[in-house]
Amino acid sequence: MKRIPKKRKEVLAKYDFSKTYSLSDACNLIKEVSTTRFDASVDIAVRLGVDPRKANQMVRGTVALPHGTGKDVRVLVLCTPDKESEAKASGADHVGLDDYIEKIKGGWTDIDVIITMPSVMGKVGALGRILGPRGLMPNPKTGTVTMDIGKAVQEVKAGKIDFRVDKYGIVHAGIGKTSFGGDQIRENASEIIQTLIKMKPSAAKGTYIKSIYLSATMSPGILIDSKSVTA
Questions:
Q1: Beta-carbon neighbour count of residue 24 at 10 Å?
Q2: Please, what's the largest Cα pairwise distance for the chain?
Q3: Which of 16, 106, 111, 177 is an S-S bond match for 70, by CB 3.0 to 4.6 Å?
Q4: Cα-atom radius of gyration of the chain, to the nearest Å?
Q5: How far apart are CA 163 and CA 62, in angstroms?
Q6: Cα separations (Å) of 100 from 10, 97, 112?
Q7: pLDDT of 180-189, one tens digit each?
Q8: Across the chain, what does the average pLDDT equal?
Q9: At residue 153, does pLDDT exceed 70?
Q10: Calpha distance 219→212 (Å, rounded)
């Protein structure tokens, strides 16, 4: 029988697997049950009562987290030369067009978000097979295809994230770090939950928010009482 490390036992002793927690309690507990030596990421997983195979039940959008993600988001702006200075002034990490398109074709994807403009989507669209599976493809619906490059870069850097329900009907999102205060994690979590509620497709029937779990890197998932955040 595999022995459970002492520190792991101490963590598990704080957590009742049979219990559902309020959002506030879960956000405080997640800090206690994280055992990593680094500043672990805090993630939320919301299972929705939708069938993502149907276009009228797809849930996708963006949300600005009040306290950001705690992550240094690497932004690439693919734009024409007249927009480069605006992108750089707004904090973009990489700015260009043809040279970066060639780098991406060669396998480079060392970025978190790509922002571009409508006039160059013809070139960017050709990268769909590379960017799509990695969740990096710019999309007007998430504000990453826009003429207001500067604003888009600033929003992403400040904590704006995009989300999309997966094939199992689950929305996954990083909402902070374990170094955040419990209230900061709670406010970020509440923001994305309330955004999802507002986006409920009219075609979705029955229970919409089926389950909500909070977890940190290498920590157990904490089940949140859905009624406490949807009432």
A1: 17
A2: 65
A3: 177
A4: 20
A5: 6
A6: 48, 5, 14
A7: 999 999 999 9
A8: 90
A9: yes
A10: 15
Averaged pLDDT for residues 41-58: 94
C-alpha closest to that of 47 among 226, 211, 221, 224: 211
Assign 3-state DSSP to the chain and report helix, strand, coil percentages, each to 5. 40, 20, 40
Q: Cβ distance 127 to 89 under 8 Å?
A: no
Do the Cβ atoms of 28 and 199 come closer than 8 Å? no
Rounded distance, CA 95 to CA 82, Å? 11
79 pLDDT higher than 80: yes
The number of angstroms, rounded, from the C-alpha of 213 to the middle of its chain's C-alpha atoms is 14
42 phi and psi angles, rounded to 5 deg: -110, 125
pLDDT at position 10 is 66
Among left, alpha and beta (phi > 0; psi -120 to 50; other), residue 143 is left
Concatenating the DSSP letter of every residue in 124-187 gives: HHTTHHHHGGGT----GGGT-B-S-HHHHHHHHHHTEEEEE--TTSEEEEEEEETTS-HHHHHH
The whole-number pLDDT of residue 16 equals: 73
Cα–Cα distance for residue pair 207/120, rounded to 1 Å: 42
CA atoms within 13 A on the CB side of 77: 29
Token pair in block for residue 231: 């009432």
